[in-house]
Inverse folding.
């Protein structure tokens, strides 16, 4: 797996050994960022929840995001994200919070222009995180929330003030974008 484009194009993204992950494929990342680049998005602050290897946040940094906060609860994954940030030259433009998503949301105090979420497909608790996020001060007018999820778990047409603006499917993967 590698960063697709931008300043770190081609940089390898390492996965931690002994951890079962479903990293976001290059095709899905390409689709997500193509859509985001066509929208009026604020790239200054990006939040990557359920970060795993950090592939979504790393791609955002490579494409010009000012700062990315990564949320991941597995310590091995957090170490891999930090290593990936260092290898790509982005360690000074990011922070990794090694916490569960719900706990991290109550700790963060920033307002993000873009939030990307790639939870494990079988973890339906992310619906509660999505609902809480949409009503939190972490997002506001103009923010965009991107949720990658299983097509077998359809999402609502809206969460709080956020409405579904685009939905794309590729195999078992659905990407729902809210604004």
């Amino acid at each position: 797996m590698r960063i697709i484009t931008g300043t770190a194009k081609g940089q390898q993204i390492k996965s931690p050994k002994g951890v079962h992950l479903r990293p976001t494929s290059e095709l899905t990342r390409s689709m997500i960022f193509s859509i985001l680049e066509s929208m009026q998005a604020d790239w200054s602050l990006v939040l990557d929840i359920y970060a795993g290897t950090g592939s979504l946040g790393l791609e955002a940094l490579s494409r010009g995001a000012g700062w990315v906060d990564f949320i991941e609860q597995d310590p091995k994954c957090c170490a891999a994200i930090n290593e990936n940030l260092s290898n790509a030259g982005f360690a000074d433009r990011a922070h990794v919070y090694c916490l569960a998503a719900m706990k991290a949301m109550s700790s963060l105090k920033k307002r993000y222009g873009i939030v990307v979420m790639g939870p494990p497909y079988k973890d339906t608790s992310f619906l509660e995180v999505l609902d809480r996020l949409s009503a939190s001060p972490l997002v506001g007018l103009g923010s965009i929330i991107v949720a990658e999820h299983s097509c077998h778990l359809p999402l609502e047409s809206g969460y709080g003030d956020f409405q579904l603006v685009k939905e794309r499917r590729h195999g078992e993967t659905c990407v729902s974008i809210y604004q």
The longest strand covers residues 162-170. The chain has a mean pLDDT of 94. The two ends are 29 Å apart (CA to CA). Strands lie at 45-49, 67-71, 94-97, 114-117, 144-150, 158-159, 162-170, 173-178.
